[in-house]
Amino acid sequence: MADEKRSIGYICPVCGNAVVAERTLFQLMAGDSSIPCPCGKSEINIHQTGDRCELTVPCLFCARDHRAACANGGLKKQKLISLSCGKSGLAICHIGEEGQVFQAMAKLEQAVDKLRADREEERRSAFLNDMVMDEVLAEVKDIAARGGIKCACGCGQYGVKVGFSSVDVICAACGAVLRLPAATPDDIDGVCARYTLTIPGKKEQ
Q: Could you say which DSSP state residue 41 is in?
């Protein structure tokens, strides 16, 4: 048993890299140990109780540490043991034979890459055109700074609601809305050409 080895893998929640280390069964069962990420900002902690080892694993998905216990008998007999995040349902740590762990870690990395791509797509799709939206909002801010936003009802108080491809300037008194398109470069020119913005009062809509 002293020479029999097990691989342990997880993904560092700080740097995002996969970490796989090798330990002998003797090392895992002899006492407490840790498996740090090379970045130095996360690690798996292993606490040996005599008949089982208790693991504390940092989680990439919910940013919390998870604790789980593995029977020493299971470490010796099972080819692969996987620990999961209860919130996401995804594996966060694999322990077992080298080939099994590397295969499981490859699947985990694919899942993480897809999640990252989905999140990036969500950020990209927040607006139809991020550059146009930024420019339109900046110009609305400049107009507001010189006191150039008023409603036809006489109120000078307003709110701004940002949509996918437009910006609504809403009168705080009557609720009237002035919609400014924010989808194309022409929309930037359109708002830049306006020294003031007048929200049409409710009576005039």
A: S
For the entire predicted model, the pTM comes to 0.59
Specify whether the CB–CB gap between 82 and 101 falls below 8 A.
no
Dihedral sign from CA coordinates of 169, 173, 175, 176: negative
Q: What's the gap between Cα 36 and its chain centre?
A: 23
Q: Vertex 121, ends 135 and 134: CA angle to 5°? A: 5
Q: Give the tens place of pLDDT for each residue, 65-100.
A: 999 888 988 888 899 999 988 888 888 999 999 999
For residues 176 and 199, the answer to whether their CB atoms sit within 8 Å is yes
- Kindly give the interhelix angle for 130-145 and 185-192, rounded to the nearest 10 degrees: 10
Return all residues near 12 (Cβ < 8 A) that are at least 6 apart. 18, 19, 37, 39, 41, 42, 58, 60
